[in-house]
Write a structure and sequence with these properties.
The protein is mostly helical and 64 residues long. It contains 1 helix and no strands.
Length: 64
């Protein structure tokens, strides 16, 4: 009977560790998602600024 109790406690501890790991993975995934959204917004902003800069300098012409 004692062996079953020890095994049950070990199993409960293992399940707790898996639960903790899953929560950490979920948190990391959420943080990565937020970072990707920020990176996407930054890339779009940079693209818009690049297009705007292209328009601004298009008035200049170099002589050959």
């Amino acid at each position: 009977m004692g062996e079953i109790n020890v095994a049950a406690q070990q199993q409960a501890a293992g399940i707790g560790q898996v639960n903790l790991a899953m929560n950490q993975i979920s948190q990391a995934t959420h943080e990565n998602s937020e970072l990707m959204e920020q990176a996407d917004a930054s890339a779009q902003n940079l693209s818009h600024k690049g297009h705007h800069l292209t328009q601004l300098v298009s008035v200049f012409h170099l002589k050959s």
